[in-house]
Structures are given as structure tokens and as C-alpha cells.
């Protein structure tokens, strides 16, 4: 299966809470550029998209959903900035197996996106993701390991 992990677009620095920070115009345009590049790689539709409930992640999905589509969309409280990568990886493996997913896109945050990448690609140091950065992992559910197929940076 293919696991796509994307960090939300650039967000404003200040808001009433971290969860309420909104995308900047630059964050919107960079996210769209990454979505277009992903579509050019041949990935335009995902079996499932899982999005953090934080406003900047929700807005990132709204922006890129013009270019990328999903058969189902889920908002998940566990993929906020300090979610537990091991728990999220276990959840994703269970859902992928149960729902027979071939592709999933997660729209999340630092530091979780880096730790998740390292969970799916054993031996990899958690990478730093720029805002709007996206990585694609070829993942084997049976072997519970994957390799980086490509990454796209704005």
C-alpha cells in the first residue's frame, strides 16, 4: 500500500490557541503546489484521508482537495502535534487491513509527521518536514515495514 504523510501548510504564528492557528496565503499556495505535484506523480485519489482536527490541517485538506480526492475522510484527534506515532501506526495498520486500503493520506503536524515516517520506515531517522511537505511510503502490511518512494517539498 502507499502511505502519504503531509505536514499542514504554513500557519499564522498567533491565535487564541495552537489548534486555532489558520493557514497563511503562502501556506495555502504551497499546499496546492504540493498537491499538484502529487497528482502529476499519478496519485490523485486516496482510499482514505485522515486529517488532524486543528484548523491549519483542516484548511490544508480543504485547499488540496481540489486536486486530490478521497473515498472517505476522517478527522482524527490522535494525529495532532504530540500524538503517539506508535499508536497511530498501529491504528493505521489495523484500519488498512480491515478496510483493504491501497492508499491513505495523513494531514498532520511536526513533530508527529517525522516520527510516523520513522515508524513506517524502520531504521530511518525521523525527517524534518517543511510546511506543506509530503512523503510517500511504499508499505507492506504483511512485513510491517516500508521504504520511501518519493517526497515533495514546496
From TrEMBL:
Keywords, sorted A to Z: Hydrolase
Q: Which InterPro entries match?
A: His_Pase_superF_clade-1, His_PPase_superfam, Mito_Ser/Thr_phosphatase, SixA
Keyword Hydrolase listed: yes
Q: Give a yes or no for keyword Protein transport in this entry.
A: no
NCBIfam families in the cross-refs: sixA (TIGR00249)
Q: Supply the name of the protein.
A: Phosphohistidine phosphatase
Query: What organism is this sequence from?
Result: Vibrio variabilis
